[in-house]
Amino acid sequence: MSQQHGFLHADATTSMADSACGYATLTQAPADAEVVTAEFKLNLLRPAIGEHFVATGKVVSVGPTPHRLRLRGPCPGR
Q1: What is the pTM of this model?
Q2: Whether 42 contacts 17, CB under 8 Å
Q3: Phi-psi region of 73 (alpha: psi -120 to 50; beta: other; left: phi over 0)
Q4: Cα 71 from Cα 59, distance rounded (Å)
Q5: Could you give the CA distance from residue 22 to residue 66 in angstroms, rounded to a whole number?
Q6: Phi, psi angle pair for 59, to nearest 5°
Q7: 27, 41, 48, 49: which one has the fewest Cβ atoms less than 10 Å from its Cβ?
Q8: Contact indicator for 72, 56 with CB cutoff of 8 Å
């Protein structure tokens, strides 16, 4: 999943961000609800270097729709 310089590819980073935020949203949704990503922005602040990675989504505010979330990671796991 790395790009030509050996860093985690941005495509993998984006997929991890989308999944982490989607599952975070589900923690605030009714049991029978479905969620889908309508829009998100991702700022890549530095190369992702490491053996494995962890992304954590956190719900910042809940409204009827959309929810606002904050993502930490993917950063090297421990």
Answers
A1: 0.75
A2: yes
A3: left
A4: 9
A5: 12
A6: -75, 125
A7: 41
A8: yes
**Dmax (CA) of the chain:** 43
Cα 30 to Cα 33, 38, 62, distances in angstroms: 5, 19, 12
* Nearest of 19, 41, 30, 35 to residue 67 by alpha carbon: 35
User: pLDDT of the chain along its 78 residues, tens only?
Assistant: 788 888 888 888 889 889 988 898 888 888 998 888 888 888 888 888 888 888 888 888 877 766 677 776 655 544
Structure-token match 């990503």, residue found: 37
Token pair 């796991």: residue: 77
